[in-house]
Amino acid sequence: MRSLKLIPLLLIIFFITSCNYTTPPEMLFGNWYIASVKANGHNMTSDYLDENTRYLVFEEEGTYQIGLLDTASEKSWLIHPDKNELVMMQGTPFDDTKTWKVKAADNLVFLNDKHNHFQIELKRKKELPKLEIMQEEALVGKWIIDKVTVNGYNNTDKYAFPNRWILLADDGRFYNGNEKGDQNVGFWKANSSLTKLDFFDQKTKQNSFISFNIANNTIWYEKQREDRNQPQVRVYFKKSE
What we know:
Blueprint: H1 2-18, E1 30-39, E2 42-43, H2 45-48, E3 55-58, E4 64-66, E5 77-80, E6 85-88, E7 99-104, E8 108-113, E9 118-125, E10 141-150, E11 153-154, E12 165-168, E13 173-178, E14 181-190, E15 196-200, E16 210-215, E17 218-222, E18 233-239
Antiparallel strand pairs: 1-2, 1-3, 1-9, 3-4, 5-6, 6-7, 7-8, 8-9, 10-11, 10-12, 10-18, 12-13, 13-14, 14-15, 15-16, 16-17, 17-18
């Protein structure tokens, strides 16, 4: 008799576990705080983000915002509920990755890129904080190499070019070299959210030849590798006083 009473409960459990997990768009609507960013298991939150850039906003009309300085009207997002796949058309601060695997609860979202290189945790926020304004002019000046990491570990003392520098001029030009000369000249431009710094060899070109990340008073880039099994090398610059 007792076993008969368990049958309805077992049927309910079976029904719940047999349902496919889906992520409807409304689960993402609203303001989100980027609690953590992990790259290959290393916590890299402070490398990618600062207090003005570690926010995401998903609007119901299908636009999104990165950070407090960004403009949502320029970016569009969509979700494939059956695939649990989020597509951010204009990318994110994380290597401009556009497609993410998503798991969402009411106040928590986890995002993974298709290679499982990045793992991002989002926490819901009722309101965005007050903006602490950083002007693009703050980037103008000389930047020198501060740190070099390989797969997340400090490898600065083994870097072959420790004395390289980048000078960002207020006319939009940049100069890059070292104490022996070897200088490059071109143009630079930051994006509206001050998360990316693009370098161009010609002012009229649309595509940059290299992009740097901006976070926590540093600018840095990752050397691109054809093979994802190659070491992940990041070079960080800090502003010279």
